[in-house]
Amino acid sequence: DIATGATGRNHGLLHSGARYAVTDNESARECISENRILRRIARHCIEPTNGLFITLPEDDLAWQQTFIDACQQAGIEATPLSPQEALRREPAVN
């Protein structure tokens, strides 16, 4: 298993880097670079989940575009989804 023997602070997740895209674009680029390397050399150890970043009703919708732009700048795929599509992909998101 990937991450076996890692510290207790490791969740065993392979980050895309999207969580850092707006505030630390350099770290986001490093994450997606390592992500691609690991997917190439250890594909059999990785379960792709295509995670979702959810905009809540109280969130500023302008931030959504800021997030998408920062992801694109870092080389991270980010595609806006309708609420219906997000629910189809992940029914427990509601």
Q: How would you describe the shape? A: globular
Name the quaternary structure. single chain
- Strand element count: 0
Major pleated sheet: none
Please provide a written account of the structure:
GO terms for molecular function: oxidoreductase activity. The protein has one domain (18-93). Helix 1 (25-41) crosses helix 2. It starts with 24 loop residues before the first helix and ends in a 5-residue tail after the last helix. By secondary structure, the chain is an all-alpha fold. The chain is globular. The longest helix has 17 residues, at 25-41. 40% of the residues lie in helices and 0% in strands. The model has no long low-confidence stretch (mean pLDDT 88).
List the helices and strands and how they pair.
Elements: H1 25-41, H2 61-74, H3 83-89
Helix pairs in contact: 1-2
Give a brief rundown of this model.
The chain has 3 helices and no strands.
Question: What distinguishing features does this structure have?
Answer:
94 residues, mainly alpha, 0% strand, FAD-dep_OxRdtase, oxidoreductase activity, FAD-dependent oxidoreductase, FAD/NAD-bd_sf
